[in-house]
Amino acid sequence: MQTQELTKYAPAVFGQTPKQGLSEKYALISTRHVLERLASAGWRVVEAHQTRAKSDVGALVCRHMVKLRHPDMERMDAKGDVIPEFSLLNSHDGSSAYQLHMSIFRKVCANGLIVADSVSHHLSVRHSGKAAEQVVDASFRIIDEAGRVLDNVRSFQSRLLTPAERQDFAARALNLRWPFEKGVKPPVTAAQLLEPRRYGDNEADLWTTFNVVQENIIRGGVPGKTQTGRRYTTRAVGGVNANVRLNKTLWELAEQARIVRVAA
Predict the structure, then answer these.
(1) End-to-end CA, the chain
(2) Residue 44 forms beta bridges with which residues?
(3) Hey, what long-range contacts does 196-204 have (CB within 8 A, 24 or more apart)?
(4) Using CA atoms, how far apart are residues 202 and 209, in angstroms rounded to an integer?
(5) Which terminal residue of the chain, N or C, has fewer Cβ atoms less than 10 Å from its own Cβ?
């Protein structure tokens, strides 16, 4: 990813001034500086985005996420459909430390997933003078865990779901995104979340089902109706926090489906 693209999709990466009003003890360690150190260790940026801000000033301090890959990870599943990577989260408003989350990229649909903490717990590095070096060290701990996460992916691929199990998975995922509260129905149905966006995603294994449902939820674009019957198209999950939280809970849902079988 070129610097120009990074500036467009995640300008907070280049923020140099913390949010006004933070304590003098807060040490702003620019994400750009951290990425430069990661690049020298072989990592490259492949994707970036950030939470929508209300002002130009806010856009330079808000929560942002950058996804990176390393050649050692790209070679782990050379014959397969997935590439391990990691998501780096940060902000310059004092709301979080640096966070590193194991992620998986699915080539066929350019779909990115974030692994549940129960499988690969995220790593945190607080803002301090040694933050850049500590993030680089933590990134290689991510590589060490990648093989085990790929084993989970392969178990998802080998787990065939019955129609009842696929419906149950989609219904649970629907409730994660649109909790059924106070009698308010979600704008779409579980069956719609199971509709693939490409021909190759018609398989009934858990990995494919998980990706189809996750893509429909995270990317949006699914036609539905509001409570008043007005036509509505679901929106993409734009906030960084919401994106990470929902991705992780969906992965956890897949972990449960891998083990627990639903009666027909």
Answers:
(1) 46
(2) 69
(3) 197/109, 198/108, 198/109, 200/108, 201/108, 201/109, 204/160, 204/161, 204/162, 204/163, 204/166
(4) 8
(5) C
Side chain identity, residue 71: P
Q: How many domains does the chain have?
A: 2
* pTM score, whole prediction: 0.89
What is the DSSP track for 195-235?
Answer: --SSGGG---BHHHHHHHHHHHHHH---EEE-TTS-EEEPP
Q: Are residues 36 and 125 in the same domain?
A: yes
Q: In terms of residue numbers, what domain contains 13?
A: 3-157
51-63 residue pLDDT tens: 887 777 677 878 8
Residues 6 or more apart from 69 whose CB is under 8 A from it?
43, 44, 46, 83, 84, 85, 105
